[in-house]
Amino acid sequence: MGRAPCCDKASVKKGHWSPEEDKQLKEYIEKHGHGGNWITLPRRAGRLNRCGKSCRLRWLNYLKPNIKHGCFSGDEDWIIANLYASIGSRWSVIASHLPGRTDNDIKNYWNTKLKKKFSGLIVAQAPRRARRKPAANCTGGFPPSLDEASPVLLPLPITEPQILFPLPSQYGNFDLTVPDLVGTSSINTDDQNPSGCTTVDHPESYSYTGDAAAAAAAALLQFNMEEYGAAVWSSVEAMYLQ
DNA sequence: AACAATTGCAACCGCCATGTT
DNA sequence: AAACATGGCGGTTGCAATTGT
């Protein structure tokens, strides 16, 4: 019954990887793949005195081709912040929206920089869901099934720009106008419908209020309206981070 | 220049879901 | 069906680098 333990934790090397170890692991995986079994990989790769889990982590977070390190763009910042507000600290899911970024990188980036940058802006964080459960389906009808008071953006793909979010009241009301891009009408927290959501069917015809502006900016970026989203974001940033 | 404090991030730890025996 | 291994994930730690005094 069962299998042998994955490795002898007392004898395997820990800590930072040397260039030689990196080379050995990279060359082996590029030549043979990981074979679906990380535990036996160190043995198969030769004298790699590392735990299989450590090999997996090193490959996925550092050695794997096409991984981007550092220099997150403003767009990436917003996508991360928005997804964090929507789904909480499900870093692997967030990473799946940012090609080339790893969950570990995003987690570190959030914890060291973005958390401060967006402090006060991300006010309602979704509770952690049970792992490996499918995410709540927000695509069917309106209002979507909101668990707790977490902001929700409709997942892509989507045909019509529509933004759903609760409007936190603790920041009070203020109007955000994006010059030359949108009109001047605004959404106030009074506009909430009974479900706690506000619907914006045609965001290009509105300016936004409070966190709605933040949600709008992130959503617009997701709708590939980069220029507009970036403009909204700049205004939000100027307001919050001055 | 020396030391302390802070920051950034790679890597480890432990938990949980799933797969295997 | 039960017991265990494995893969995957998020939280946390430890240390090197950087910044401040």
TrEMBL record:
Top-rank taxon, per record: Eukaryota
Record keyword RNA-binding present: no
SUPFAM superfamilies the UniProt entry points to: Homeodomain-like
Domain HTH myb-type: 9-67, 68-118
Annotated Gene3D superfamilies: Homeodomain-like (1.10.10.60)
Any single Pfam family the record assigns to this protein: Myb_DNA-binding
InterPro entries to which the protein is assigned, alphabetical: Homeodomain-like_sf, Myb_dom, SANT/Myb
GO CC entries: nucleus
Primary location recorded for the protein, binned into one broad class: nucleus
GO molecular function, one term: DNA binding
SMART domains, sorted: SANT (SM00717)
Boundaries of every Myb-like domain copy: 9-63, 64-114
Coiled coil: none
The keyword Transmembrane helix belongs to this UniProt entry's keyword annotation: no
Subcellular localization, as worded in the UniProt entry: Nucleus
Keywords: DNA-binding, Nucleus, Repeat, Transcription, Transcription regulation
Record protein name field: Uncharacterized protein
Species annotation: Zingiber officinale (Ginger)
Lineage of the species this protein comes from: Eukaryota, Viridiplantae, Streptophyta, Embryophyta, Tracheophyta
